[in-house]
Specification:
The chain is built from eleven helices and six strands. It is of the alpha/beta class. It folds into two domains: 162 residues, Alpha/beta knot; 66 residues. Strands 3-2-1-5-4-6 form a six-stranded parallel β-sheet. α2 packs parallel to α3 and α9 packs parallel to α11. The mean pLDDT is 91.
Length: 243
Amino acid sequence: MEKENYLERIHIVLVDTQDGANIGSVCRAMKTMGLTRLDLVTTRVYDEDRVRTLALHAADLWENARRFETLDEALKDSVFTVASTRRRGKHRKLSAYSPEQLAEHINKIPEGDISIVFGRESDGLRDDEVKLCSSVVTIPTSDKFPSLNLSQAVQIVCYTLFQNAQVYPQGMTAVSHERIEKASLEACEHLKAIGYFKWDEEEKWMLQFLKDTLEKATLSESEMQRFDKLFRKIESIKVHKEI
C-alpha cells in the first residue's frame, strides 16, 4: 500500500483533553506528518477560537474529528490499539514499544484501522484506559524532566510513523477489537467449564492476556475461527471423557 493510504488507517485518539488549544496543536502536528484521522473521547465543550488558532491550516482535522463518550466505543472497530504512556505499574502492560518499534510493527499489520491513544495533559491515561488497549508506546525522555507536552508527544509518534511508512503485505484483513473481545470472553467461558481457573483473579488476568495477545497477533477471521474451535473442542473433549 502507498504511504498516504498507510497513514490514513491510523487514528490519533485524544482522551478528555483539557485545553482546546492543545487539540489545535495536535491537529497541526498530525497534518504535517500526513495523518488526518482524529478521534476525541470527551464530553467537554471547547473554545473554537483556541482550537482554530493553534490548528492554523489544519483546522479541517478538528472539523472532521469523530467524537465519542467512551474510549471503548472509540476503539471497537480497530484491529490494533496502543496507549501512549510512560508510567508503569502492576495494572499496566508488561512491555512497551518505542515509537520506532511501534512504526515497524504497524508496517507488518494487514488492513484495518489502528488507534493510538493519548491521555490528559495533567496526568495522562488512567489504568483502566491503558487496559482497554493491547499495547503501550513510550517515548524515551530524560529522567531529570520526563514530561512531554501532549502535542509534542503526538508529533514524535506521528513523525516516526511517517518516516517508516512503507508498502506492507496485503491479502489479509485483521479482525476488529470487538471481535477479539468476544472471542476472548468465549475462550474463558470454555476454560471455566473445564475447571481451569483455581483462584478468583485468574480468570480476569487470563481474559486480559488473551485480548492483548490476540490483538498483537493481528489474526484474520479464518484464524480466529480456528482459535474459537480450539477452545470449544477442549471443553467437548473434557465432557466426553467424563461420560
